[in-house]
Amino acid sequence: MTRVAIEPLLRGSTADEILALRICDPALGEGAFLLAAVAVIVEHLVAAGLPLGEARAGAARCVHGVDVDPRAVAAARAALAVGEDQLQVGDALAIDWPAAFPAVFARGGFDAVIGNPPYVRQEHLAAHKPLLRRFVSYDGAADLYVYFVELAHRLARPGGGSV
Length: 163
Hints:
By secondary structure, this protein is an alpha/beta fold. The protein has one domain (2-117, 158-162). The protein contains nine helices and five strands. It has a five-stranded parallel sheet with strand order 3-2-1-4-5, sandwiched between helices. α1 (2-10) runs parallel beside α3 (32-47) and α3 (32-47) packs across α4 (52-60).
């Protein structure tokens, strides 16, 4: 699924164009989707002529994300060899994304938003309803994933995509 989502951004691109991409998982967990994204990016960077080590380091700089679980974020940071500036602990629906990722939003947002949004039934969201009312898609009966779909569209730059 990750390959299908980001391959159109990579196909026919130069190494510099690929290295400029920014991909986000707003509910990253331990980073499975971002790890897959890095693997696909590395393939394209190597095909574009970069040595494998340089391709791996460059691809890792392309990914960003947020999760509420500090242990999961720590595991993702370790697996991807990235820092706090790329993978942050926080509630994706509540954080100020432009403030959290200023360089990305200076360019207009993420090139792609990927991931598996949390599926939390609306019956378990009573404490979160005030926050969720800020979303256009707010409906007192909507499950949590609905708000993540809207968030993905908000995070993608004009012309970017989300899956």
